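Sequence design from tokenized structure. All designs in this work follow the same two-part layout: the structure record, then the generated sequence. An example of the structure record is given first.
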């Protein structure tokens, strides 16, 4: 953070940057995905963009790097959430079971959010800092991007 900046002030700068980028990429990513009828491409690209975002703070701890991280992360997350949700609804096995399947998906999304803080604390404790956590997260984002490739029946 810049000299004299309190953490609360930093968050007050970073969160709006992330939010604006997220809203813009949600709208634009969803529109482009619909226009080109390409869900997997946008989900994979946004996961890879997320990996790039996570490398930024691992490579530099400067305030400028954190500003870049906030924007790139917002762009990646917004597009991912918009298009991945569309992709998921397109690969559900049966329309009459969609509500149940989306409920299972919600539980599947919540599980990692419960476990991740514990795993993150181990990575930070063992490595002695957050750099390793950002690197591991970036690698997982790349794995997520690659996991979309085998999906069939959707472009």
């Amino acid at each position: 953070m810049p000299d004299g900046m309190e953490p609360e002030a930093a968050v007050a700068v970073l969160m709006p940057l992330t939010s604006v980028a997220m809203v813009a990429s949600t709208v634009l990513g969803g529109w482009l995905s619909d226009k080109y009828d390409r869900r997997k491409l946008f989900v994979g690209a946004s996961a890879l963009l997320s990996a790039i975002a996570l490398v930024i703070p691992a490579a530099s701890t400067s305030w400028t790097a954190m500003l870049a991280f906030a924007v790139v992360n917002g762009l990646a997350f917004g597009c991912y959430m918009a298009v991945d949700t569309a992709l998921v609804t397109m690969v559900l096995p049966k329309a009459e079971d969609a509500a149940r399947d989306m409920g299972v998906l919600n539980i599947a999304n919540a599980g990692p959010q419960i476990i991740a803080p514990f795993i993150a604390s181990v990575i930070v404790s063992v490595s002695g800092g957050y750099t390793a956590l950002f690197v591991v997260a970036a690698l997982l984002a790349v794995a997520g991007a690659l996991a979309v490739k085998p999906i069939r029946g959707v472009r």
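The mean pLDDT is 93. We note this feature because it recurs in several other targets discussed in the main text.
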